[in-house]
Amino acid sequence: MGAQEKTVFEFIERVDNHISIDHLLDDLLQVVGDFGIEHMIYTGLPVGNNSIDPLVKTNRFPQEWWNRYVELDYAKKDAVCQQVYSTMSPFVWHDVQPGFTSRDGAARIAGEAAEHGLVDGYIVPVFSRDEWLSAISFAAPKRLILSQKERGALNLMAIYTSSAIERRQQKRPARGKLSTREREVLLWTSAGKSCWDVSVILGISEKTVRYHTAQIRTKLNATNTTHAVVRALQQGEITLGQLAESLGDFH
Amino acid sequence: MIEAHVVNAQNRHLYESEFEEFLRRRHDYYAVANRWVPISDDGLELDPFDTAQATYLLGMLEGRVVTSARLMPTTIPNLVSEKFPHMCENIGLPCSPEWADWTRTYVLPEYRGVGATGILGQMFCAVMEYCLDEGITHTGGVLQQFLIKRWLDLGWKVIPAGLPRILSGDWCLVAYVEVTETALKKGRAHASIDRPLLVRNGTQLPFIKPSQHPAIEAVT
Q1: What distance in Å separates the CA atoms of residue B90 and residue A9, rounded to the nearest whole number?
Q2: Which residues in chain A have Cβ-Cβ distances shorter than 8 Å to B152?
Q3: What is the ipTM metric for this complex?
Q4: According to the model, what pLDDT value does residue A175 have?
Q5: Do residues A169 and A58 touch, judged by C-beta distance below 8 A?
Q6: DSSP-derived secondary structure letter, A223
Q7: Share of chain B above pLDDT 90, in %
Q8: Do A152 and B115 touch (CB under 8 A)?
Q9: Residue B67 and residue A78: Cα distance in Å, rounded?
Q10: Nearest CB to B153: which of A129, A152, A156?
């Protein structure tokens, strides 16, 4: 067994022993540094018109690039991200299929990524612990030449790391189950109802509605209503069926 | 919730129709749908490892075999030792009465739900329960790489025997889970299982032959 493989298996052995997710990511980036990789992100993939931002579990991409990616909603046109919707096979960014790279805007996004130091990368699709389509994406400042063995090693490290991250995040005490009333408030709010509307519908005071929305955001660790809805869906607090019903699409 | 019936060479006569159904569905999946093995004339799928030494867990729900597992000692020829010994560069080829080769776990497509509470999670816990009962310390084999995330997500300790490689177009690896009370407890909590799933009818055979049991060896 070569030195590089030994390093990989040693990383796998200590993946659950780090004192924090940040330490785990430091360790991972150190090990994958030998493969030419400098950055990584672990994120869920958005459905429909939702933003990718609330689905990010851990992020070690350059901040400036990621802000731009989120602000301009690049996930919808980024060829690498789009290909993950059609395959669970890991792939090198530069091997992304022409069907995705030729789409409007895709080439510009790849060019801008390169300007930010993300010239190439390797992406490993996984299902999150709650069965949400997700991926670990590794980024490199140069074109990546990866042997099959190195790809296997990256797959293995990505899978162990993603599971370790999720199990750690699950343990956060801030997370609590929504009450029935909180769920109702969330569903009405997601349907575009104001706090006053919801107060009338549910026969409670507007102040109580505001209290509930604040509680929901805290429990789901969300920054706004859209974020809260996505997190609630992810964590199974509400279902797509309920959401569709509250939006009036369900008959 | 499934019932996982333990089937071996001694009690198989109690499960004739279920066992045939299992082999037929296995054929549909391994031969017809995935072309991993040749199509057989009788529509049943058997391989060289379906011997008297194999133990099967048939996951029954609503009177049907909806999922399954096959376990055998790693001390006799098994799928990993015969086909994939080169995929164990990390820990070497397992060969111990307490390490079980685990194969043939799949879920009928119509019973494949999403979520940790699905049939697959139940079968994983049934295998863990059986291994604990029988004194097995590790179980695993060759599997698609995304499946080890399911094991890890249950909170199980998973040992990769080697790096993933592409087999018939899929990234696969050889990996083993550690069998412990904690693993069973965590697995059950994650899969929302509140009771044992194993059912034992008729004559039972110990997975580890008494002559191979380390504790008994020490006495003699």
Answers
A1: 7
A2: 159-160, 163-164, 167
A3: 0.90
A4: 44
A5: no
A6: S
A7: 70
A8: no
A9: 39
A10: A129
- The tokens describing A124, both together, are 């490993």
For the domain made up of A3-169, give the CATH fold: Beta-Lactamase (3.30.450)
Both tokens assigned to A153: 């090693």
A69-88: pLDDT as tens digits = 999 999 999 999 999 999 99
Of B91, B93, B146, which to mutate for an interface test with A (greatest number of A Cβ within 10 Å)?
A: B146
B215 — pLDDT class (breaks 50, 70, 90): low
Q: Do domains A3-169 and A180-250 have the same CATH topology?
A: no
Judging contacts by C-beta atoms under 8 Å, the chain B residues touching residue A130 are: 115-116
Q: In what order do the strands lie in the sheet with A120-127?
A: A56-59, A39-44, A133-140, A120-127, A91-92
pLDDT of residue B116 exceeding 60: no
CA-to-CA distance for A16 and A163, rounded, in angstroms?
Answer: 10
Distance, CA of A163 to CA of A127 (rounded, Å): 10
Check B149 against A9: CB less than 8 A apart: no
- Closest Cα to residue A159, out of B81, B164, B191? B164
> Which is more confident, A196 or A245?
A196
Please report, for chain A, the start and end positions of each structural domain, with discontinuous segments joined by +. 3-169, 180-250
Burial of B152 (0-12, 13-18, 19+ CB in 10 A): buried
CATH class, domain A180-250, is mainly alpha
